[in-house]
Task: structure prediction
Amino acid sequence: MQTYHIFLLSVFISAASSFKTVDVPEQPVDTRTWPYRLYLQSVEITINENYGSSKTQVRKDKSDNLRKLSGYVQVDKQVDCTVKGSMVTMIKNNNQWVENYRLLPKPFDAFMKEMQAPMDSISAHSGMSTKCPLEPGNYTFDKYVMEAEAFPRDIQLGEYLTTTEYTVGVEQIAKFVFSTVLDPIV
Result:
């Protein structure tokens, strides 16, 4: 019996030694910029007067020719975790707005997690929290530029209209409407 095990072991060792090692090249990290440019056309932020106020404007910056968002969102009272977020994105197709993506109402934290990349970008620039509760405060945007990297590389190019709403029950507490254009880099 022991001779049989030694025989099997020697067969296995000789078979293993005949395998060739193949070097698999590492996949290069893509360090190029995104294949499109993102232009911010307009932003409208509406805050329910029971929760705060806002003022925003988008202007072309003469130094780099980019359209940038400036303004503020004033939150007057704590927004608790009963808030739900939802989003609808439309894309212009043959001069008609067509729904491209819908995110049904979700609790605030789950909504923010699903929208993590763009929300992290906005939060980093304004100091606005992406976790509930949202504390009272003045959250300012000074020449904020949407980062293309916050969106998928393979996103369909075109003109977008994105509406994000935050509600408590049936009461709308905030609405953000972003108009953007994604153009190819040529």
About this structure: The mean pLDDT is 78. The first strand starts at residue 36 and ends at 47. The domain at 33-184 is CATH 2.70.220.10 (Ganglioside M2 Activator Protein; Chain: A,). The two ends are 73 Å apart (CA to CA).
